[in-house]
Amino acid sequence: MGLAALPARLLRSAPLVGALRVLMWGAAVLFALLVLIPHTGLYRTALPLSGSMEPTFSPGDLLVLRAEPLSRVRVGQIITYSIPIGDHHLETHRIVRILRSGSEPVVQTKGDANAQPDPWTAVLHGGTVWRVDRVVPYVGSALLWLGRPAVRVAFVLLLTALLLRIGLVQIWRRPRSGGG
What we know:
Elements: H1 5-11, H2 14-36, E1 44-46, E2 62-69, E3 78-82, E4 90-100, E5 106-110, E6 122-123, E7 128-136, H3 139-146, H4 149-172
Antiparallel strand pairs: 1-2, 2-7, 3-4, 3-7, 4-5, 5-6
């Protein structure tokens, strides 16, 4: 057996094939949980980028958000909303005061790690607000790392090289001798 046949045999080995299957199924499940199912409206995910809510959650955690009817908004809930100033980015902070209830509540929010409430009041529109339901520690760090341009390029190049290697081994392998 030549050295060129070793990678082909290795790629067909049962433990490696099993590990690749587990990896593929895991990636498919992760893709469904983080990308597909949130589009159904059952939940959304968010990645906190600042430490304003520590120790409740930290940068790099994954937040699972659920829709909450505006009529059920209460002091103490942690919600994700668009801030009313500047770039209108999404903010995830705790409600510390409800200034007006009803169909479009006006709330004051504050990060748990911040000394003062946010310098604005937020009017909540649309019938629902996204409330933090679960915090999954550290998962967001992995997603942020995988989203880096250099990491994406490295994965694409590695996958391309692996597929090219498999293809070349298949093309150039010596035919088996014997009748047939």
